[in-house]
Amino acid sequence: MEPEIKIYDNAAGVTKAFAKHMAQWIEESKNPLFHIALSGGNTPKLLFRYLADNYKNSIEWSKVHFWWGDERMVPPDDDESNYKMTNELLLSQIDIPEGNIHRIRGEEDPPTESVRYGDEIESLVPDKETWPAFDLIILGMGDDGHTASIFPNQMELLHSLDVCEVATHPSSGQKRITLTGKVLNSAKKTAFLVTGENKAKRLQEIFSGPNKGRLLPAFHIHPAGELFWFVDQAAAGKLEKE
Ligand code: 6PG
Predict the structure, then answer these.
(1) Which parts of the chain have pLDDT scores under 70?
(2) Domain chopping of the chain, boundaries
């Protein structure tokens, strides 16, 4: 299916529009549970704050299960932890059962945790054919074209036959755990949230076709389900106008 690009004035506009879609998708879903994989980064920060302020009582949170598309291998109280950020801004602000929150244990040994988390996903997220199919995966894109924690120098993680892999941040060397390409490409709905001028060149490369795009991990996200790009004007600045 062709990706749908939605362009808004600024990051606040992206946040507001995406939150509205997310609430609607949760409400419309016929399944008793709705599995969402979250991302880290700055745009989700705005989203989590916005959801806590505006959707505290209007989303049926008990139906939602939260997972992470990637995590930095640090303890859950470390400022680098994606779980910590989400917990402070959203999870602690809403009424959601503890059992619905499936964090990656950043304090554990990375290879062991990667297997444990993959097993937890496989046991709870229903699969469509072979791979677990999240109802919604929220992704960001770095200005090097990485997504989740699949970086351009580790493209092989896109083709891994495991649900999760250990990744290494190319400049800091920080260990991370990330969902692999097969799982990222099996979601029912996938939404990239991308804001800021520093993303404009990569976005242009991704939408200009395989010649330039194929070296960027985000280019290879073509899920079985629907794919949306929620972007602001600054990030969309170099896309060709129709
Ligand atoms: C992380 C991510 C990562 C992020 C991008 C974009 O934990 O770092 O999940 O893939 O989404 O780096 O981040 P920004 O929204 O901050 O640009």
Answers:
(1) 241-242
(2) 34-241
